[in-house]
Design a protein that fits this description.
Layout lengths: L2 H4 L20 H15 L4 E6 L5 H15 L2 E7 L7 H11 L9 H17 L3 E7 L7 H11 L9 E7 L2 H6 L3 H4 L2 E7 L4 H14 L9 H11 L3 H18 L6 H10 L6 H16 L2
Parallel strand pairs: 1-4, 1-5, 2-3, 3-4
Helix pairs in contact: 2-3, 4-5, 10-11, 10-12, 11-12
InterPro entries: AAA_22 (IPR049945), ExeA_AAA_ATPase_DNA-bind (IPR052026), P-loop_NTPase (IPR027417)
Protein name: ORC1/DEAH AAA+ ATPase domain-containing protein
Pfam families: AAA_22
Length: 291
């Protein structure tokens, strides 16, 4: 039996695929969206959002993309970098393709000219060109940064023609220091931290509700261990909860307690040592079992 049927779910609540239906608007996520939307709205040129691995940067990027597209005033797209081994020409061609530049050339000068013309067209249509870049920590080196700076130099007397919003590891900030002029153009920096214990509980409950589950599925002490072992990182929260649902289904448990989370933590290698966890886990399990 799959756990969706056992727990009466309509969808997979803890997939790590960044599905914006499951976006959880925590206070810090809400602030991040407002800051970055301001960068896009005012065409400030360059905004940066950083965060450690698994803190939800990609989900937030996709949510911002969705908001800008729904607005209708933006010509916007998301560029996801998968490796750092690419040339400035490749980057310019990709930006051009995302902005619907036709017949992109292999000559960098021609690509730059075609991109500039397209940005002028977008501006003349009363729209704003905004490119979101995920995994932007892969933008490295003076040559690459100079191309971004060159695009940001495309301005009219009353408007900038393109804005970039970068999402990535904190390494982004270090990379930008290579180009002092570009670094000084960053209008907004926001760091996405881990969720606190209360937010972890709300995050899990939100995803369950979106997936069709209204009734509580985890005990309070289970939530405490989820927060502890995940360190408040959504990617790990998803992994723990996904495995907990499978374990609970196998045990035919209607309510998942701390013992289930402890099994999952052990299986995933998240247990930080018996001496450190014994007290918390024993107390949690005693509460769950009513001892």
């Amino acid at each position: 039996m799959d756990y969706e049927r056992f727990f009466k779910l309509n969808d997979d609540p803890f997939s790590n695929i960044p599905d914006s239906r499951f976006y959880y608007d925590s206070p810090q996520h809400s602030r991040a969206i407002m800051h970055l939307a301001h960068v896009a709205e005012r065409m400030r040129g360059l905004g940066v959002l950083t965060g450690e691995v698994g803190t939800g940067k990609t989900m937030l990027a996709r949510r911002l993309l969705e908001i800008l597209r729904e607005d209708g005033r933006f010509e916007t797209a998301l560029l996801v970098l998968t490796h750092g081994d690419f040339s400035p020409l490749w980057f310019l061609r990709r930006v051009g393709a995302l902005l619907d530049v036709k017949d992109v050339s292999d000559d960098k000068t021609q690509v730059s000219s075609a991109l500039a013309r397209r940005l002028m067209e977008i501006h003349a249509e009363g729209r704003k060109a905004v490119i979101l870049i995920d995994e932007a920590n892969l933008l490295r080196g003076q040559a690459m940064l100079e191309e971004i700076r060159g695009l940001l130099n495309l301005e009219l007397s009353d408007a900038r023609l393109i804005t970039f919003i970068l999402f990535g590891m904190t390494e982004v900030n270090q990379n930008l220091l290579v180009d002092v002029s570009l670094n000084q153009r960053v209008s907004v920096k926001y760091h996405l931290g881990p969720l606190d214990e209360d937010a972890v509980k709300e995050y899990v409950q939100h995803r369950l509700v979106v997936a069709g589950r209204e009734e509580e599925l985890f005990t309070d002490t289970a939530y405490q261990l989820i927060a502890r072992y995940s360190q408040g990182r959504p990617r790990l929260i998803n992994a723990i909860c996904d495995n907990a649902l499978m374990e609970g289904c196998l045990q035919e448990k209607d309510l998942l307690d701390a013992s289930v989370i402890q099994i999952v933590a052990n299986n995933l290698g998240l247990d930080d040592g018996a001496e450190q966890t014994a007290g918390v886990t024993a107390g949690a399990e005693a509460n769950d079992y009513g001892f």
